[in-house]
Amino acid sequence: MRMSDPYDLFLDPTAFNAEVIFVGTRCGRENLLHKYTTGTIHFVRGGRARVDLPCGTAATIEEPSLVFFPRPHEHRVQPADDGGIELVCAIATFGDAFRRAIALSFPDMVVLPLARLEAIRHTLEAFFAEAASQAPGSRQMADKLCGILLAYLARHLFEQGRQQSPPATGLIAAACDKRIACAIAAIHSRFEDVLDLETLARGVGMSRTRFVELFGRLVGTSPHNYLVNYRIGMAQQMLATRLPVKTVAARVGYGTTSAFVRKFKQVVGVSPGAWAK
Predict the structure, then answer these.
(1) What are the chain's domains?
(2) pTM of the model
(3) CA 239 to CA 232: how far, in whole Å?
(4) Among 87, 92, 181, 237, which residue has the least CB neighbours within 10 Å?
């Protein structure tokens, strides 16, 4: 089991997709929180903004900043005063491995001043220009550039997590240990194979006992639970494309359809057939 880069765990070509949904100036106050069903990213380019959250909490943005909600989250972004705000908003969806990194490691809301993105200033400027343009293809270009900005932001957050002592639990911490990172990479690439504890531990040169202890401490769950949840997550993606349950069961490593159905229901709460409807 080899990995060329620990970021292969989450920064794969399918990791980020973005769609710009608002470009302009917001002057009035909104009355209701919006319940987003995906991740969201808001670029506050000018003005003072207020990010309202459930339970009456709020955060004030005093300088041009991006506001990132990695997971679905109820919130609204509105002017903090009568001056209004210049805003670009996008919704974001992520590949499976990156979703797992979010679930285990990322905070609910991230605020990052645009001044700290100097290394990709030209990309940011190009994104804003395409987002505001009416030229043919500009919408597609803006979405692609926003995906690049999300990738850069993700790397920034991962590096912050790795610099903690100890590193944040989850895939960030796993990426700091080559052995556990290699085991996770094996699960991601070979989830349909027979991957028992002995196979995974031997593949990274560790005893079974030491492997289970270190994996659980870094990732926050056992190797078995991680493998099961990864398989079920992949199964959900396949079921969403209307593949038959029997076919999906075989493709995610279950020898019998009945065993797959039992495990799926244990993890998700409903049968694969019911979930697919």
Answers:
(1) 6-163 (2.60.120.10), 177-276 (1.10.10.60)
(2) 0.68
(3) 10
(4) 237
